[in-house]
Design goal:
- This protein has 11 helices and 15 strands.
- It has helices at 43-50, 72-75, 94-99, 113-123, 139-151, 169-184, 196-202, 220-223, 237-243, 263-272, 287-295, and strands spanning 5-14, 17-23, 26-27, 32-36, 58-63, 66-68, 79-82, 157-161, 188-193, 205-210, 213-219, 229-233, 248-252, 255-259, 279-282.
- It has a 6-stranded mixed beta sheet with strand order 7-8-9-4-10-11, sandwiched between helices. Strands 1, 2, 3, 5 and 6 form a 5-stranded antiparallel beta sheet that branches. Strands 13-14-12-15 form a 4-stranded antiparallel beta sheet, covered by helices on one side.
- Helix 6 (169-184) links the parallel strand 8 (157-161) and strand 9.
- The protein is globular.
């Protein structure tokens, strides 16, 4: 096996329950990998196995070139993680909580610990409240502190489980920009989430977990590639049908689907016939459509977050 995260036949049973059912993950250097699934689909169990927090029932895990859990002591200092709820001592400040973590691994030393703590607090938007006791933090602030802890050692790989939990829309946007900035700096990001919009905006590669099984894994660009049809927006859909007889496959209000992947050609035909056109675009499936097709799920199982 090779790659940043690779699993082969990974299984985790709890009694008769097969929480993770033979999954083969393939996360490559430079990915922002979105690990999607409904709540209870096995995402957190998988993440905990990747980091050696839970032992698999069977299968293999390779993390940054090392076989887990045997290589944990060697590879985990190169990994930043935020799993489930961030842990912290409530009576201590954010700065003091971070100071308890060993910053002497890759990317830091004891002499530069104070400077590094200030940097990560600023990165996650807590620079002004780092001295406040954590017990006074909101859920979103605690989540930011957990993310700061994950960044403390400048990790090569960042593993995040629902990192925007508890954040308001502005906070979600700030975390999104932070992750993109880290990615531009060379960090590989593995993002476990049930929010389709979050993954669609961030990720270059996607895996979809459904009841413990990996039902889909591919590049985002491949999953949402054009379908070979053009979407026409017009106040006169019946005139589009009359002009392009035989090429119209669907009409939904003022939205018309036309066979053909050249919007300019479709526009020329319609304008030439005097048909008003208010918008044109290649038809692409949304990530929501792709996921619901792969899982057969209703839209409330994996949130579209619209």
């Amino acid at each position: 096996m090779s790659g940043v995260i690779v699993t082969r036949g990974l299984v985790k049973r709890f009694g008769r329950l097969r929480a993770v059912d033979g999954i083969d993950l393939d996360v490559r250097a430079g990915d922002i990998y979105g690990f999607l699934g409904a709540n209870g689909s096995g995402k957190t169990t998988t993440v905990r196995m990747l980091l050696g927090l839970v032992l698999p029932t069977s299968g293999e895990i390779e993390l940054l070139g090392g076989r887990m859990p045997r290589a944990g002591r060697r590879v985990l200092p190169r990994v930043g993680s935020l799993i489930e709820g961030p842990a912290a001592y409530g009576h201590l400040s954010g700065r003091e909580n971070l100071a308890l973590l060993d910053a002497s691994g890759p990317g830091g030393s004891w002499r530069t610990r104070r400077q590094r703590i200030a940097e990560v607090l600023d990165q996650v938007g807590l620079a002004g409240v780092g001295r406040r006791p954590v017990k006074a933090y909101s859920l979103g602030m605690r989540q930011r502190l957990g993310l700061a802890a994950a960044l403390l050692r400048r990790p090569e790989l960042l593993v995040l489980d629902e990192p925007t939990n508890g954040l308001d829309p502005q906070g979600i946007a700030e975390v999104r920009e932070l992750l993109l900035d880290l990615h531009r700096g060379g960090t590989t990001v593995f993002l476990s989430s049930h929010l389709l919009a979050e993954v669609e905006q961030l990720c270059s590669r996607v895996g979809v977990l459904d009841r413990g099984r990996l039902v889909l894994q591919d590049q985002m660009a491949t999953l949402t590639a054009p379908t070979g049809a053009t979407v026409v927006h017009t106040p006169t859909p019946d005139r589009v049908r009359a002009t392009l007889d035989g090429r119209v496959t669907a009409i939904d209000g003022e939205r018309v689907i036309v066979r053909g992947d050249d919007p300019a050609e479709v526009n020329a035909l319609l304008v030439g016939a005097g048909v008003p056109v208010t918008g044109l675009a290649l038809q692409r499936p949304t990530l929501e459509q792709v996921v619901l097709t792969a899982t057969g799920a209703s839209s409330d199982r994996v949130e579209a977050d619209r």
